[in-house]
Fold each of these.
Amino acid sequence: MALHMSARGWSERAFEQKRDVIAKVVMAELVQYGVALADLSASIGAQPEVDAAAFAAITAPMNGERLPGAVAVGFVVPAGDADVAGLQARWRESGDPELTLSPDPAATGEHYFAVLGKSLTGPATVPQGVDLASVAAVASALREARSGGGVVTSATFEPAGGGDRSFVMAAAVRGGEAGEVRGWVVMTFLGREFLGMPVGLIGGEQVDVEFADVSGDRPVTVATWQSGARPDHRMPAWSTVMPEPPGHWRLTVRPTVRLLPAGQAWPAPVAAVAGSLITILLATLTATVVTSRDRALRRVDEATAELRDDIARREAVEQQLRRREEELVGFAGVVAHDLRSPLANVVGYADMIRLLDDGDLSEKQRAHLARLQSSAGRMQALIEDLLAYATADNTTLRSEPVDLGALVDVIVAERRVTAPDAEITRTPLPVVLGDESQIRQVLDNLIGNAVKYTPKDRHARISISATDVTETSFCRVEIADRGIGIPESRLSEVFNAFTRVEGSENYPGTGLGLAIVQRIVERHNGDVGVAGNPGGGTIFWFTLPTAGARSSVP
Ligand code: ADP
């Protein structure tokens, strides 16, 4: 009896913990979308002219991995009946030359046309020219965002042609002297996918979850996570109305009999709870770094405009922003460092569950475990990269002769363990002057990318060579590959932190490797660049002082 009681107490506590984590993760996601959208509308509003190129550049860092559940983001503009033809001509010039606006004949007064769009879930294109006036819930959210400001969440609706319930979040884009409304940025969500990722990971078989829109007269279920296990009616379901936006979403979590599985699975909740807490922390951390950088850049723009004639004050603002960014990178480094050991625990527990599994786990449990392991692997990669990013900036650089040839040979030998078919050749390489561990990081990231970004059905072909830079004591090292290549239009962005180019979705990565490379090379007073490889692939290059050079390491 006592045992039974303590088991029940344990399941109640486990249920409390689980539902709190689920509510926090869902809330963290909602907040993250709001911040992303508000930043997007401010960045687009700051453009002198909104066009396809500006929209593509600003939305480039947004992807489905960072915004799970969001399926697309678009720019929407208003038009009266008489303006449609003129608007179509204007947007054919600034966006898609084949754009056709299709006004909804039933819409009276105003139309809302999606004229630019980006899919967040893959290469699929977003239908443009659609009149959102035909979706009452969206039209009313757009009008509310225009009159009230801020980010507005629409009531849910069934997309044309049926399918999963959807909703949008919208923010008005203001610009010009008077801050007039130029249009809206709109993010579209599919309910099922919105809930699936975080809740699937945390809920497992132990709870059922329902996410409902309670903003209208009757609650409308947007998404459910069905664990497949029997509900446990001995414990009541738990419901909460999310604080943001007020009175809009209700989350209900119901316990199942799997909440306290007989003895074997106690580490799973621990690992999952710890894993999800880390997910929240990392999501918040990543969002903080990205949005702070965007915000910082915006503030520089604003400051520049205001202080046109006051160069000294502008420099002070920039210096302050640089310090702020340095602080943030330092902060990211500290947090990443502190997350390492709990994450190692999560990985350890997950490995233990897999190793102890002698057929007790169901297929579904095994699939959840595999997801947990792969998510934890991605977190580990992100943490390692955040640490390297912080280190690249903050550590004191050593200045010592470094034999590039020997270093490349060690790195190549290590890479061959996981890519035995890779064909990697090199010419003689010079001895340079710098910090060996940092230069190793540069070569490792560039050679690692060259191996990684090779189509799956081909083996990597990489050549590494060096030339002296005429009349300076620098050498130039090139790493040329025959991989998937980078579109010409994106070459200038790949060194920005968190940039991932379309086409790289199927390869693991954090978008930090090249930013680390750039920081390290620049701290050695060198340059770094990238170009297409004639005949296919990419050439990355960097310059470093040769050992004969006068000390140029700070
Ligand atoms: P990650 O590889 O972790 O995504 P990086 O900063 O190393 O981050 O690279 C940024 C982006 O640049 C990658 O996501 C990829 O799209 C592109 N990229 C980098 N190296 C290569 C390469 N050798 N070939 C093709 N694309 C590359």
Amino acid sequence: MKVTIYPDEALRRKAAVIDEINDEVCQNAEEMFDIMREAEGVGLAGPQVGWSRRLIVVGVEDELPDGERALINPVITDEYGTLLSEEGCLSFPGITGNVVRSEVVDVSAYNLNGEKVEIKATGLLARVFQHEIDHLNGVLFIDRMTPASRMSVTQKVKELERLYQKVRAS
Ligand code: CO
């Protein structure tokens, strides 16, 4: 498993619902944790490791109970307020930009034990949830950047596209 880099098509696919928590799901979650920690990221979604399933791992550890750092089939059930802040993404090395997100989100999901969990998140955790759940729907943070940020990263995004074509052709 390794991190899928933009513009790999895997990032634009809508990920499938997980209907059984089996060994594959648990092992992939473990591997995703390892990848996220190594990259010093705060979140990672299935499509970002080429696994098109609705699972996210979250690395904002202080704000979550221990068993709820891997979330299966997460859904935002409510959201309030808006907040502008800078974001990055492991699938976009070297690129950051401002994104407006909801300030508070209620997330409903399942943990790896198959238990339903409801989480009210604020601050960075709320932002990570929105960013990672977007990944499950093929939505990327460049889609949501403010027009000024989107403009400022245009060249870097094009570089990633060129690099991807080059690697593909070789
Ligand atoms: Co991302």
